Amino acid sequence: MTVGGWLPATLAAIEPSTPSARVLRLDVPGWAGNLPGQHLDLRLTAEDGYQAVRSYSIASFGPGEQVELGVDEVPDGEVSPYLVLDARPGDAVEVKGPLGAYFVWRDDDPSPVQLIAGGSGIVPLIAMARARALSDSAAPFRLMYSVRRPDDAMYRDEIDALGDDVDVTWAYTREAPAGWARPAGRVSQDLLRDAAWSPAQSPAVFVCGPTGFVETVATALVALGHDPARVRTERFGG
Predict the structure, then answer these.
(1) Residue 182's pLDDT is what?
(2) What is the rounded CA–CA span in Å between residue 124 and residue 117?
(3) How many percent of the chain have pLDDT more than 70?
(4) CA-CA to 183 of 20 to 30 Å: which in 39, 51, 61, 163?
(5) What range defines the domain where residue 65 resides?
(6) pLDDT of 198-237, one tens digit each?
(7) Sign (positive/negative) of CA torsion 51, 3, 67, 8?
(8) Is residue 108 included in any domain, yes or no?
(9) Do 185 and 151 sit in the same domain of this protein?
C-alpha cells in the first residue's frame, strides 16, 4: 500500500469511547486501504491558515474508503481536544497515509501473537485483533491491556466480546474493580511472566502506549528472555 499526498476527509460518525476519548470514522475518497497496525497523519487548518499535524493509529484495516480512529484527549494539545470535544459529523480534515510497515500484523505469520497496550495504545492492536477474527489464521492471540481504571478502557465492549479469538488480561494501575483478584498496579515483569506468551514460544510481540510504558514493558520482556527483534514497539508522548 503506497502513501500519496494529503487527502481531503470528512468526519462521518463520532462515538464516545471513554470520558476522555472518542471513536471517529472518516470518509476518505481515494484512501488505498491499510494493514492492521498502521497509522496516518491528520492535518487541521484554521480559518487564519494555521495548520497542525498529528499522527494517529488506525483502528480499521483492509480496503475501503472509510477509516476509523480512536483518539484520547491530550490536555493542552492542539489537535486531540478538537477531535474529542468539538468535532462534529461533516467537519473537514486532511489525512496522509497509510504510514508504517514495521508495526503491522500479517495473517500469513503463524506465530503466537502477544498484544500489550497502555491507554490509547489499544487502537492499532484492536485492528490486529479484528484482522485475526476475520482471517483464516490459526495464530493464537493474547492481549494485555493496562488502563488506570475500568472506565478508561477504549473499545471495552468489543474486547470483552473477543471470546475465544483472544485471551485477554486486564491490568489496572490506579483502581481495580471490586473483588478483582489482582491489586491495582503497573504492568510488571511478574505479570508478563504469568500472563504473556513465554519466550520459548517465540511470539510476535506488539507493544503500544506512552513512551514510559513502552520502554518499561519492552525492557521487562527482554529481561524475561524474549528476542528483542521479536518485540515491536510504537510509542507516543514525551
Answers:
(1) 86
(2) 9
(3) 98
(4) 163
(5) 7-99
(6) 999 999 999 999 999 999 999 999 999 999 999 999 998 7
(7) positive
(8) no
(9) yes
Structural domain includes residue 106: no
pTM: predicted TM-score of the whole model, two decimal places:
0.95
Q: Alpha-carbon distance 122 to 164, whole Å?
A: 19
Q: Enter the DSSP assignment of 190.
A: H
As given in the structure block, the three cell numbers for residue 89 are: 459529523
Coil/strand/helix, residue 218: helix
CATH code, 184 = 3.40.50.80
The amino acid present at 172, given as its one-letter code, is Y
Structure-block grid coordinates of residue 224 = 524475561
User: Do 139 and 162 touch, CB atoms closer than 8 A?
Assistant: no
Contact assessment for residue 65 and residue 27, using Cβ atoms and an 8 Å cutoff: yes
Peptide bond into 98 cis (omega under 30): yes
Clarify whether residues 128 and 83 are in a common domain: no
The reply to whether 207 and 117 lie within a common domain is: yes
46-63 confidence digits (pLDDT tens): 889 999 999 999 999 999
- Cell 480512529 locates to 69
127 with 29, same domain: the answer is no
> Domain count of the chain?
2
As a residue count, the chain comes to: 238
Identify the CA nearest to 153 among candidates 209, 204, 203, 104. Answer: 209
Cell, residue 215? 520502554
Q: Is 89 helix (H, G, I), strand (E, B) or coil?
A: coil
Per-residue confidence at 3, pLDDT binned at 50, 70, 90?
low
